[in-house]
């Protein structure tokens, strides 16, 4: 008697209790639906509008740099003060907090995630940061330092304009934090696809 070619612990090729192999997936994965695109656009819009709140907070919480004029030039009132970098630090910390909250909120509203949501978080974070930067610099102290110095007079301290010395690095804090938090939550707590090779349990 010859031994069977298929070991007894493996299922037969046509065993009805064993699920068929999964169909091959394309290189692009599942198609993106119109609903997902709309959700991504909404995330972008809401994040961009939230940038106004970031701008207001930055304007009110950022430390002020004081300048003084002697009638011939404008100088820092305290050259050893670290308030010059405090404006950037305040903006970055606030932007990181806004990004983390945005990533958490999007995950709680739609746990399955998706490419449009991640792109919406990134684009919305950049737009929100740009809006916050624009609002802070527009409604903050004037950028015309010379005219301001002439207006207040010599030896009278006045506030320097609100600026971002880190530039693009500060503007990317929000989108990076949003994507990292969202992707981390999706990887840790997001829904899992069923294993097509898992044998069904007998009743």
From TrEMBL:
<feature type="region of interest" description="Disordered">
    <location>
        <begin position="1"/>
        <end position="31"/>
    </location>
</feature>
<keyword id="KW-0472">Membrane</keyword>
<feature type="transmembrane region" description="Helical">
    <location>
        <begin position="91"/>
        <end position="109"/>
    </location>
</feature>
<feature type="compositionally biased region" description="Pro residues">
    <location>
        <begin position="1"/>
        <end position="26"/>
    </location>
</feature>
<feature type="transmembrane region" description="Helical">
    <location>
        <begin position="164"/>
        <end position="185"/>
    </location>
</feature>
<keyword id="KW-1133">Transmembrane helix</keyword>
<feature type="transmembrane region" description="Helical">
    <location>
        <begin position="41"/>
        <end position="61"/>
    </location>
</feature>
<feature type="transmembrane region" description="Helical">
    <location>
        <begin position="116"/>
        <end position="135"/>
    </location>
</feature>
<keyword id="KW-0812">Transmembrane</keyword>
<protein>
    <submittedName>
        <fullName>DUF2567 domain-containing protein</fullName>
    </submittedName>
</protein>
